[in-house]
Amino acid sequence: MKDRAPKAQTLNTSKPLTVPPTQRDAVLLQAMKGQPDITSETHPPPMKRSHLMQAVTQAGPRRSARLHARQLSINQDTPLESCHEPQITADAESASKRAGLSQASIQQFDVDQHQPSRATENTRQPKPLERPYSSLSEPKVEREDQLYPASLLWTRHNSNSEREHQPKRTRLTREALALFNKMGEEKGKRASAPAPLEAIVESSTTKTISTTMSGFAMQASRNGILDPLDSKPPVNLDDIRERHAQSRETASPTESAYEGYVKTVGLAPNEATMVVEVTAGLLKRCPDKGYYRAFNQAFTGLTEDAGFNNGLSAPQPDFVEGLKRNEFRPLLIEDHVDGAVLYKDNPKSMTLPHLAGEFKGPGKDLEKARLQSAYDGAALAYGRNQALNCIGKPTIAGHAKITTFTTDGTHLNLFAHYATPSEDGTAEYHQYPISSTNLKSSHQDFRQGYRQLRNAQDCAREESYKLRDQLKEHRKAKNSQPAPLPSIEDKDGCHIIDRVPIYQPAPLVPFGPKHGKASVSQPSHSIEASSPSAADIASSRGYKRPGFHRDRRGQARK
């Protein structure tokens, strides 16, 4: 047999390389660091593995270059803590421990160059740190050079954007704590300090019921506001109806005016439009400077718990017409009559009106408007009664001077209002119907409703001025009367007017004959005349005290 040259053994790349752990670590570290194989020089392998080492030695340059190229790609994706070790000792086992490589991680470096993605798929991706919200500085767990370049760029971008939106944190120091405590003490002092008188706003803590709530009808009935079924007709009902039916000096609306009203009201979509159109078509405007009308204004000047408004919100009619407050000057009406001034803190407030109205949109419930007008009429009747009581002329029992109306553009209803005392002494407020007209049924009915409403306006205006004149005359008469003179009473019960008596000097006695010594004598009664007694004063004024008489000298004697 011919001696054949030993055939070089080739490395099968289809199977994983089975290298002893110690030698494998040394080879891998040599490829990473680009250093000569220290382990092969210091620790020679056993003889039974010489053939494997010979193959590795023969393929050393190519394998080292390939591992070096792979390592460069791995270093760009996956950080290895072994790359940052300060030195590599001869002990391969300790080197592998310091490198942080386990048996499972070493097997990921497969020698097959056709499967490079297996290492990156099995490599654990580092998670970006979530920094807790704290004012204290915290140590970094991971260094920036251990992160992927893309992850590092993303982390820096997000951290910069978060710093822009986050408030600036203050370091936890003794000075910061002292400042924080001081700020807390100042805030507590400001909160506990009493508010100035100018900042105190009067507010009612009592829960009230508005006119649109379900419990309004029950509370109004408890306050003495009666509905038309329980109300009694006023004594002057016939006079009111006759006055409302009187013909007017001005011309009645024409047929074209009636047709225009029907068209306008038929197109009105809501209550606000109805208020404007009905006001322009039916109501008149008073030319007087001190007499005006207001819309949808609450009666904030009324006293709470006046009887008729207990537990209810302030009345707020859609329409009210009356005198302004300055028309009652020089009388300060708000100081003498409760419920006269309707709007609080308003020098031009409406005062003691006699007419109010409620509007509803098309197709709405007129019964609710009727209930609201009952509340409005009770408020006006209350103010009128208070004014009459102030001048000492109580209202005539059963006479109605207050008028309200309700309308939805089609139906017009007028009511008379007055107050009477009940059995327990509280007031009952009546609401009795005067007339009801369908404004759209015919031209004749439209003219009738037009005339009735405008005559009701004239009656309310006359009553407002009449009541104003009575209040002003009462004040004038009271100021023109002289003040009563004070009087005293003596021991016997006789009244003596305390007037200053007129004292006359005693008459002079003529000089007598000269006896060598001049002397002036004064009669004894001159002293009494100079100081009159109470009996003398009483007798001079026409009073006579019992048990006294006068003598011929005019002196009072028992």
From TrEMBL:
<feature type="region of interest" description="Disordered">
    <location>
        <begin position="472"/>
        <end position="491"/>
    </location>
</feature>
<feature type="region of interest" description="Disordered">
    <location>
        <begin position="1"/>
        <end position="142"/>
    </location>
</feature>
<protein>
    <recommendedName>
        <fullName>DUF7924 domain-containing protein</fullName>
    </recommendedName>
</protein>
<feature type="domain" description="DUF7924">
    <location>
        <begin position="312"/>
        <end position="460"/>
    </location>
</feature>
<dbReference type="InterPro" id="IPR057684">
    <property type="entry name" value="DUF7924"/>
</dbReference>
<feature type="compositionally biased region" description="Basic residues">
    <location>
        <begin position="542"/>
        <end position="558"/>
    </location>
</feature>
<dbReference type="Pfam" id="PF25545">
    <property type="entry name" value="DUF7924"/>
</dbReference>
<feature type="compositionally biased region" description="Polar residues">
    <location>
        <begin position="102"/>
        <end position="125"/>
    </location>
</feature>
<feature type="region of interest" description="Disordered">
    <location>
        <begin position="513"/>
        <end position="558"/>
    </location>
</feature>
<feature type="compositionally biased region" description="Low complexity">
    <location>
        <begin position="526"/>
        <end position="540"/>
    </location>
</feature>
